[in-house]
Design brief:
- The protein is α/β, with parallel strands linked by helices.
- 48% of the residues lie in helices and 15% in strands.
- It has a 6-stranded mixed beta sheet with strand order 4-1-5-8-6-7, sandwiched between helices. Strands 2-3 form a two-stranded antiparallel sheet.
Length: 287
């Protein structure tokens, strides 16, 4: 005949060891109390002379052991823990960890359009030249961090050619900088305008017959990053595109004539997203 007191003592020692080795959560500790109570009840029943008590006693041990203690702790037998789950961190944005290493060693010209005496499009208390420069400087910082060599056609609110120069001379001065530095890419940054103030969205232009893949990569990344209306890509004959000797694009970030988009283009967060989108698009192109 089994000495139930000895068995109870052994079981209690086993669970004391488990509680030391494996820290028990509150819900599991409650189950342990339930187990001890059940064991005590079984022992009392056995002591009263119940011959079936031994079987019930061990059934209680194993049933409670697996159902109440080990199951919740180790989540075995498909059991579902009733403990409160810990905080789950969401998966990162697929683009947030994009490898920019392919930009290392590349020479990239960042051309913030307009500047100085030529503010570009002006509407809704927004100057195109200011938006272009703010995003261009953020692009510079991100590209430098990625290991690229960056040539800025302008880093302040000035013209590139001397004041009083023609528009053709101003634009050619920007391309001359790219040519002199043997640039791998020329990226001109602009803000758009339209008489219809309801029109909004970002678009990317490329020289006819060249750089369409570069434009597509940048446009796709910009839309992904900013959520702007996707106005697609298109060939164009802008001076800085048709006369560039290297792959070149012109990014129209949004319409200053649209009040909502003009407001976004003045926000530092949105400017950062735009710059990040362009830079990631350049990296995707080189891949």
């Amino acid at each position: 005949m089994v000495d139930n007191k000895k068995v109870l003592a052994i079981v209690m020692l086993v669970f004391m060891a488990i509680s030391i080795v494996i820290p028990t959560q509150v819900s599991h500790a409650a189950a342990l109390d339930e187990l001890m109570g059940s064991l005590a009840t079984s022992t009392m029943a056995s002591s009263s002379g119940n011959t079936a008590a031994d079987g019930g006693f061990f059934n209680n041990i194993f049933g409670l052991l697996f159902d109440k203690i080990l199951g919740p702790i180790f989540n075995i037998f498909g059991g579902k823990s009733d403990s409160t789950p810990g905080k789950v961190n969401p998966l990162p944005d697929p683009g947030s960890n994009q490898d920019l290493g392919v930009l290392r060693g590349k020479t990239i010209v960042v051309d913030p359009g307009h500047g100085g005496s030529n503010p570009g499009a002006v509407a809704n208390d927004t100057r195109e030249a200011d938006n272009n420069l703010a995003v261009g400087l953020k692009m510079r910082d991100k590209l430098v961090q990625a290991g690229a060599k960056v040539v800025m056609t302008r880093s302040s609110d000035t013209t590139v050619a001397s004041e009083g120069s023609s528009l053709g001379e101003e634009l050619q001065a920007r391309l001359d900088m790219a040519q002199a530095n043997n640039a791998d890419l020329f990226v001109s940054v602009h803000s758009n305008s339209n008489p219809d103030s309801s029109i909004a969205g970002a678009m990317t232009f490329y020289p006819s017959g060249n750089s369409s893949d570069l434009a597509s990569a940048v446009q796709s990344s910009v839309i992904k990053r900013t959520g702007a209306v996707d106005k697609g890509t298109s060939p164009a004959t802008f001076y800085v595109l048709r006369n560039a000797s290297m792959p070149s694009i012109l990014v129209e970030m949004g319409f200053v004539t649209n009040s909502a988009e003009a407001a976004r283009l003045q926000q530092d967060t949105y400017r950062n997203q735009m710059a990040q989108g362009i830079v990631e698009g350049l990296a995707a192109y080189f891949k």
